[in-house]
Inverse folding.
């Protein structure tokens, strides 16, 4: 389903705070979206000009992509193909694009791939398929990583992606696209209702009011990126914290393990086998988690080195174009990145600990197995004598 927000401003004193907006048609199917996108943005009879267009799509399928490709202007088409490719390929990316040749156009783009830990309820599967028949996004169910609680809800870990592209020719004419994976929420309807004059902006995750629009593309891009990076930070922090909670009984230090009583988790072959399985399962989740965090950090660092200069003028000014000064938004982004760096370090330490403990448990099981076989062999000789 898709949400479309088309507005323009006419720069006169009686203009409403939200500018002039085309009629909100609510959630749109792919065919309804195609019908709306076929309308010309400027000079359409009976319609306000769509100088600033926001398009939010949850779980876009092939028909949504066809609708966008069939109606894209030459400016939008310059960037859309790469945007589709990165979204479908679960890429993590952040950059600003200004072609060296041709018209003066711009593209501001980010892609964030991450994982969501969900407890309780059924396992939802992505209905979209790859060419090999597998779901576009994967979901996993931890089998051994469980709490010692009979009433513990079922856990599912979902791969998800959020991608955003803002393309245009100047500060007054641009389009913002956002693709968001929400399949793991089931049939939850799109939040697009308006209460007391406040309408959540879906591209910001509902954190800003769509009726108080940000009219300039670069300021809006920073706001949307900060909101979505915050979402990634919280999702990954929750996943790592939940993993650590389940690993805690199995990652005691070696002295505690050796000193544990006869009822300890590593005092029997069966318990050691379970411990090894838990640690091995953690070592399948942790590298993916670390990779996802690392990519988000790396693309932000690369952006700071190569593309931040394109935003230098809005970072120096005290412009009222954004509800939050852009320099403050950049500071908030840096705070999220610092938090992700700390999370990466902790996850790497836990991965190394699990790898080392799994190796020790495996060696201990081999020694115990050899001892048991030796005792059994000795007993058989005594019986013969």
């Amino acid at each position: 389903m898709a949400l479309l927000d088309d507005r323009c401003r006419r720069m006169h004193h009686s203009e409403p705070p939200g500018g002039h907006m085309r009629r909100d048609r609510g959630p749109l199917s792919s065919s309804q979206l195609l019908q709306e996108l076929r309308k010309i943005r400027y000079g359409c009879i009976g319609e306000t000009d769509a100088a600033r267009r926001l398009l939010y799509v949850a779980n876009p399928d092939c028909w949504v992509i066809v609708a966008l490709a069939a109606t894209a202007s030459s400016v939008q088409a310059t960037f859309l193909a790469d945007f589709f490719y990165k979204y479908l390929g679960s890429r993590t990316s952040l950059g600003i694009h200004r072609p060296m040749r041709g018209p003066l156009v711009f593209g501001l783009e980010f892609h964030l791939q991450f994982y969501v830990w969900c407890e309780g309820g059924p396992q939802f599967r992505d209905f979209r398929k790859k060419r090999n028949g597998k779901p576009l996004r994967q979901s996993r169910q931890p089998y051994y990583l469980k709490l010692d609680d009979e009433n513990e809800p079922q856990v599912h870990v979902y791969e998800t992606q959020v991608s955003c592209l803002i393309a245009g020719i100047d500060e007054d004419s641009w389009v913002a696209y956002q693709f968001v994976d929400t399949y793991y929420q089931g049939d939850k309807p799109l939040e697009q209702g308006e209460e007391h004059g406040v309408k959540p902006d879906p591209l910001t995750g509902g954190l800003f009011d769509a009726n108080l629009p940000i009219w300039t593309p670069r300021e809006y891009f920073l706001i949307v990126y900060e909101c979505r990076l915050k979402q990634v930070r919280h999702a990954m922090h929750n996943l790592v914290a939940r993993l650590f909670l389940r690993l805690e009984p199995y990652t005691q230090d070696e002295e505690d393990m050796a000193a544990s009583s006869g009822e300890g988790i590593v005092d029997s072959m069966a318990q050691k086998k379970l411990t090894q399985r838990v640690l091995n399962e953690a070592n399948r989740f942790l590298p993916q988690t670390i990779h996802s965090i690392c990519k988000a950090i790396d693309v932000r660092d690369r952006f700071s080195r190569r593309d931040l200069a394109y935003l230098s003028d809005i970072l120096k000014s005290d412009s009222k174009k954004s509800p939050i000064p852009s320099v403050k938004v950049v500071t908030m982004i840096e705070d999220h990145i610092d938090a992700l760096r700390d999370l990466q370090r902790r996850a790497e330490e836990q991965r190394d600990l699990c790898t080392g403990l799994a190796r020790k448990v495996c060696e201990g099981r081999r020694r115990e197995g050899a001892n048991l076989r030796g005792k059994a062999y000795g007993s058989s000789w005594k019986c013969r004598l």
Summary: Residues 326-384 form the longest helix (59 residues). The two ends are 80 Å apart (CA to CA).
